[in-house]
Amino acid sequence: MADRQSQGLQIALIAAVMLDIVFGVAAYLMWRQYDEARNSAVDSSKKASEAQQAASAAQADAAKLKEWMGFASTESVDSIGKTKDDEMNNIYVNVFGAGYPQADRVYRKVLRTFYDTILQKDTSIADAQQKRQEAETERNTLRADVAKVKAAEEANTKLKEEERDKYKTDFDKEKNVLMKDQRRLVAEKAEAQKNADAEAARLQGDISARDSQLTDIRRIAAERTHALEEKTKETFEVPLGKVISVNQAAGTVYINLGEADALHRLTTFAVYDAKTTDVSGKTKKASIEVTKVLDSHMAEARILDDKYGDPIITGDVIYTPIWKPGQQRHFALAGIMDINGDNKSELDLVRRLITMNGGVVDAVAEGDMKSGAITAKTDYLVIGIRPGEFASPTALKNFTDIQTAASRFIVKQIDLKDLLAQMGWKPETNLQRFGPGATSADFKPQPRPGAQPLNTGNVSPLFKPRQPRSATTGASPY
Questions:
Q1: Angle (CA) 181 192 140, round 5°
Q2: DSSP 8-state code for residue 103
Q3: Phi, psi of 351, deg, nearest 5
Q4: What is the pLDDT of residues 103-148, one digit of tens each?
Q5: Angstrom distance (rounded) from CA 121 to CA 422
Q6: How many CB atoms lie within 10 A of CB 344?
Q7: Distance CA 284, CA 104 (A)
Q8: Measuring CA to CA, which residue among 331, 328, 324, 353 is closest to residue 266?
Q9: What are phi and psi of 336, to 5 degrees?
Q10: Domain boundaries, the chain
């Protein structure tokens, strides 16, 4: 027995270590997802900042372009247009072209210089737009804006190609387009910043949600660990008691459980062979039901069923998954609780069987009805008839939700029929039990329903009333 207990403790320790490893891996995976989300948010913010800096640089370049044209960076477009009309043929050639040879101080050469400068600035603006586009693509939330930018770039490219052919006579139009593009870029930069802020807020919300999930996992792990520490360290279904005496004539047995073990009347047990140490997967030999709690560790039970060729004997062990000495087992019920196979719910009867045996029902999900919730204290999820293909969406969701909760809290699942078999329960029957306790009075013939028994007065001459043997002669009455 000491070796078995040592083996059980070793198995329990291994199971506890494996649970710790599982919870550790789960916590690591959640932390890793959190870290990846945080790094992604940092990278996106960095790229958005680079795009903003590039746009600011492009705006500064546009201001410099005004200065190179001879205007203040804050001067309005209307003022520049007026100055251009007044000094187009004088100041542009003599002032801006003063640094060139006399042969190059012509209107066309100055325009070419302006054209080359604008092309360089367009290239700088295009680079800034490309960086901003890359930042938006990384976030994967600004696809619509990227499409608008691409459309604008295509229109701008087409416009520039047309302007190359007629730039000599259309310089004012080119300037207006440049200013329009600049205003568009400013507006797009503001929109990009707004979207970036929204995306950052969303990512922060995701991070907060992940933090909340990680906190929940840690809390559940702590609760489950605490619950496991409060329970037995055994990892298999060990017997809870044994039979200490049998009265086959009366159909009763006595077991070594009683008031000190918080045993209740009507608790049912399955009976197994005395050598059984792990009842999981074993076939019971009989069932008993507690009728009287006699002492601290003694109770009387009636035999519900047994095998004539393999009767209950002293030393046989007993077990039920619903009750444990000094503890309450907690259960959740899922599916249709059908006991007798008629596809009808007997939920109330299953509840009574559990509560009469000292158990507690934490949650129920049967059809469209759902009540309670699985917690870290729940020991078993009892599975009845699962929802079929024609079940309502609510019924399917209720069944799936309670199974998901059972997996989350590492709750053992057991079929209803296995639960009833392990607790030793059997439906009431009108069949007469044969065996040493049976008497001839149990088998008296009964008249047909509604018929009156008749006495014809005719008795077979072969029948003679039996008389007691004579005490003096010892002669037979026959």
A1: 120
A2: G
A3: -60, -45
A4: 555 556 666 776 777 788 788 888 888 887 787 788 777 667 667 8
A5: 84
A6: 11
A7: 112
A8: 353
A9: -80, 125
A10: 2-212, 241-319, 327-422
Question: 241-319: what CATH class?
Answer: mainly beta
Task: Give, as one character, the DSSP assignment of residue 290.
Answer: E
Contacts of 146 (CB under 8 A, 6+ apart): 133, 136, 137
How far apart, in whole angstroms, are the C-alpha atoms of residue 207 and residue 18?
29
What DSSP assignment string belongs to 7-76?
HHHHHHHHHHHHHHHHHHHHHHHHHHHHHHHHHHHHHHHHHHHHHHHHHHHHHHHHHHHHHHTTS-TT--
Q: How does pLDDT run across 391-448, given as a tens digit for each residue?
A: 899 999 999 999 999 988 889 898 988 888 777 776 655 445 555 555 555 555 555 5
Q: Which CATH superfamily is domain 327-422 in?
A: BRCT domain (3.40.50.10190)
39 phi and psi angles, rounded to 5 deg:
-60, -40
Residue 129 buriedness (CB in 10 A; 0-12 / 13-18 / 19+): buried
- For Cα atoms 453, 456, 459, give the angle at the middle one, nearest 5 degrees: 115
Angular region, 278: left φ>0, alpha ψ -120 to 50, beta rest: beta
Tokens of residue 207, six digits: 């991070």
Q: Compute CA distances 125 → 131, 137, 242, whole Å.
A: 10, 18, 89
What length is written for the chain? 478
CA gap 194, 305 in Å, rounded: 77
- Number of CB atoms found within 10 A of residue 435's CB: 13
Residue 153 pairs in a beta bridge with: none
HSE (CB half, 13 Å, CA atoms) of 469? 5
pTM beyond cutoff 0.85: no
Coil, strand or helix: which one is 476? coil
